[in-house]
Design goal:
Layout: H1 3-15, E1 20-25, E2 37-41, E3 48-56, E4 64-65, H2 71-80, E5 86-92, E6 95-100, E7 111-112, H3 113-119, E8 120-125, H4 129-146
Parallel strand pairs: 3-5
Antiparallel strand pairs: 1-2, 2-3, 4-7, 5-6, 6-8
């Protein structure tokens, strides 16, 4: 995890305080590809899931967004994202793109911000991140777990 993503993780955990019963960072060299954060929602049913965090600057001279989903992360998502609610939260400048982990294959090649918009289940800005992420993850995780 690079410094930008480390800062993003710390900021996200602090901002989501009180909305997550627990948020655990997992660094696992025995099982590479495990997403950056496991969360438990403070909501009916205490919904749980995984977030892979990506953070980069908004492109200036090119449309390509400079982040990469590693091969080990793709492999983890192939094995588990269909069974465990897993999402990629990509921060590009001041925008946040929430992407279903089952859509990871669409992020193999270089992507643009338009690509992120197309595959996102939700998009937030700095002002809407906390409330929007709470509501969206709670609803999506509940639906994924309960099939409704």
């Amino acid at each position: 995890m690079n410094k930008r993503e480390l800062d993003f993780r710390k900021d996200l955990i602090a901002r989501m305080g009180g909305r997550w019963a627990v948020a655990i960072h997992v660094e696992n060299h025995l099982n590479p590809g495990v997403p950056d954060l496991s969360y438990v929602m403070v909501a009916p049913g205490h919904e749980t899931g995984w977030l892979e965090l990506k953070a980069t600057y908004r492109p200036v001279k090119t449309k390509t967004v400079a982040f990469k989903v590693e091969p080990s992360q793709h492999q983890w998502m192939i094995k588990y994202a269909h069974r465990v609610p897993t999402y990629i939260l990509a921060k590009v400048g001041d925008s946040y793109y929430l992407i279903d982990g089952r859509s990871h294959a669409q992020l193999v090649e270089q992507v643009t911000e338009d690509d992120l918009k197309r595959v996102s289940v939700a998009i937030f800005d700095e002002d809407t991140l906390v409330k929007g992420l709470t509501t969206t993850l709670s609803g999506l995780t509940r639906r994924d777990r309960n099939g409704s």
